[in-house]
Amino acid sequence: MDLDFDPTGVLASLGEAELEHYRALLADLGRAAGAFRFEVAPNPCVGAAVLSDGVEIGRGFHRQWGGPHAELQAFEAAAASGVPRERWDTLLVTLEPCCSQGKTPPCTEAILRTSIRRVVVGALDPDPRHRGRGLEELRERGLEILFLRGASALERYSPHFVEWTRPDRLRRSVPWVIAKWAQTRTGQLSPPLGSKDGRWISSPAAREDVHRLRARVDAILVGVGTVVADDPRLSVRGVLDVPKPPLRVILDSSLRTPPSARLFQPCQPGEFAGPVHIVARAGFDAQYYRPLVEAGAIVHALHPGDQGHTSLRETLGLLWTEGVRRVLLEGGPRLLASAFEAEYIDQLRIYTASINGGVGPSMGRFLVAERLLQIERSEVGDDARLDAFLRK
């Protein structure tokens, strides 16, 4: 067993039974936190528990991208337990508490506002920019710190976060990309000609599920072909909690997006939509630019990719500079294939409907089993749903 890290001398005051109790709790929290991996990625799966006199009085998990961290959820549960706050003495957390401002304030500050005097963690932050800083900040403020190396199995339950924080990935400066599509049983992304549901493959329940996913990303990315063919809104509907509507981003080399597209119509009650960004190839015809700007678009001119089209790499880099960290790619077969081939896709969400046949190519060649990690299958209405991470 690896040695534990004990900068404040906590181990000397612990019996073996108490130490094993901590290890067992961290292992259980790690397993439970892993259930939320597809909802929080690229953030880590984190679980936390508040103890009073050795008894757990509240636990919490990081459940969704942009939502409260596990520590805050655990504090809320502990407050509901009825145990007075001054009797909270120990916090167990599967990953070192964050100490920097992100989508939420630093958890170290929240911990310091409580009566907790001991913090026990099961893994250090693998990000070299933050590793150890959270624990050091708490130690400097007088808290007892105990790191039980490997107790929460970060590599098992958050392999996506380990990948996200690798130095080579950090240098890429591109967002986490979730590729989403609906397909027929035979793998086509468009329904058979003459289908009674028109352009829809997925069930109403699956489409509602997509809106919940849209509410938890920073941007939705499609190609202009999707805009011309389907005239989508790319908005979020039927979701009450939308912290910040996602940007709507169109890859459109030659500015073919119609200024009359539904993208530019005002939101209806209960609908949320971010600004429309159109990414074009540098040197586009200026006559198409002004009508789109007048319609409300923000147009970016970028260098083209190898085949003369708008560069996906340049687009993702642009989105990174706009503060985008989680992108939902809802493109057609051509854009999806390009993203697969360039290895920009990190996560999959696939809905398979109970329809045979269809129009167009399949994505099946990209879904070989050895490339899929942490696969989870579920049912959404009449459709099958598959979530997975991609091995690079």
CATH class of the largest domain: Alpha Beta
Q: How would you describe the shape?
A: elongated
Based on the coordinates given, report the CATH architecture of the largest domain: 3-Layer(aba) Sandwich
Q: Largest sheet, described in full?
A: 9 strands, mixed
Q: Reading side by side through the largest sheet, how are the strands ordered?
A: 13-12-10-8-14-6-15-18-17
**How many angstroms separate the termini?**
30 Å
Describe the structure.
This protein has 2 domains: 11-162, Cytidine Deaminase, domain 2 (3-Layer(aba) Sandwich), CATH 3.40.140.10; 173-390, Dihydrofolate Reductase, subunit A (3-Layer(aba) Sandwich). The strands form 4 sheets. The chain has a 9-stranded mixed beta sheet with strand order 13-12-10-8-14-6-15-18-17, with helices on both faces. It has a 5-stranded mixed beta sheet with strand order 2-1-3-4-5, sandwiched between helices. A two-stranded antiparallel ribbon has the order 7-16. The chain is elongated. The protein has 13 helices and 18 strands. It has 392 residues and is of the alpha/beta class. Helix 4 (107-112) links the parallel strand 3 and strand 4.
Map the helices and strands.
Elements: H1 16-33, H2 37-40, E1 47-52, E2 55-61, H3 70-80, E3 90-93, H4 107-112, E4 118-121, H5 133-140, E5 144-147, H6 154-157, H7 159-164, H8 167-172, E6 176-183, E7 188-190, H9 204-214, E8 219-223, H10 224-230, E9 236-237, E10 247-251, E11 271-272, E12 276-281, H11 286-295, E13 298-302, H12 312-321, E14 326-329, H13 333-341, E15 347-352, E16 359-362, E17 372-380, E18 383-390
Parallel strand pairs: 3-4, 4-5, 6-14, 6-15, 8-10, 8-14, 10-12, 12-13
Antiparallel strand pairs: 1-2, 1-3, 7-16, 9-11, 15-18, 17-18
